[in-house]
Design brief:
Shape: elongated
Organism: Zasmidium cellare ATCC 36951
Oligomer: single chain
Largest sheet: 3 strands, antiparallel
Number of strands: 3
Keywords: 2Fe-2S, Iron, Iron-sulfur, Metal-binding, Mitochondrion, Transit peptide
Bound molecules: FE2/S2 (inorganic) cluster
Subcellular location: Mitochondrion matrix
Distance between the termini: 46 Å
GO cellular component, one term: mitochondrial matrix
Radius of gyration: 15 Å
Strand content: 15-25%
Number of helices: 6
CATH topology: Sufe protein. Chain: A
Protein name: Iron-sulfur cluster assembly protein
Number of domains: 1
Length: about 140
């Protein structure tokens, strides 16, 4: 019962008070946009990151999710997690970390996968716009 309650608390908290909902200018050079869908249910997530080109650090994050409560909670939690991270660190986030934090049941694992896909897609969009940044990151140790 305790585990069940904590699942509801964390998911419901993010669901009722989602952090960092919104969007940024897609065309801005320092913004990366990820738009992904979950084949399992058709839910869609848009995630945007603003990057400080001086150190490849994520300075701002916004999301919009058209999906279930777990998908909204996953993206909300993800935005808190990646703020301040380097692109490299953010690219290493696994959906299992998100699922664990939110205590998602197995049937809801794909909802957290949507969040992992979204951050990866946002990072790769940023790199497409800023090929130099990718070269630096890959060249680093
Ligand atoms: Fe997608 Fe839950 S099945 S909203
Ligand atoms: Fe499909 Fe949650 S994203 S049920």
């Amino acid at each position: 019962v305790a585990a069940r309650r904590s699942y509801h608390e964390k998911v419901l908290d993010h669901y009722n008070n989602p952090r960092n909902v919104g969007s940024m200018k897609k065309d801005a050079e320092d913004v990366g946009t990820g738009l992904v869908g979950a084949p399992a249910c058709g839910d869609v997530m848009k995630l945007q990151i603003k990057v400080d080109p001086a150190n490849d650090t994520i300075t701002d994050v916004k999301f919009k999710t058209f999906g279930c409560g777990s998908a909204i909670a996953s993206s909300s939690y993800l935005t808190e997690l990646v703020r301040g991270m380097t692109l490299e660190q953010a690219g290493r986030i696994r959906n299992t970390e998100i699922a664990k934090e939110l205590c998602l049941p197995p049937v809801k694992l794909h909802c957290s996968m949507l969040a992992e896909d979204a951050i990866k897609s946002a990072i790769s969009n940023y790199y497409t716009k800023n090929p130099k940044a990718r070269a630096t990151d890959l060249g680093g140790t």
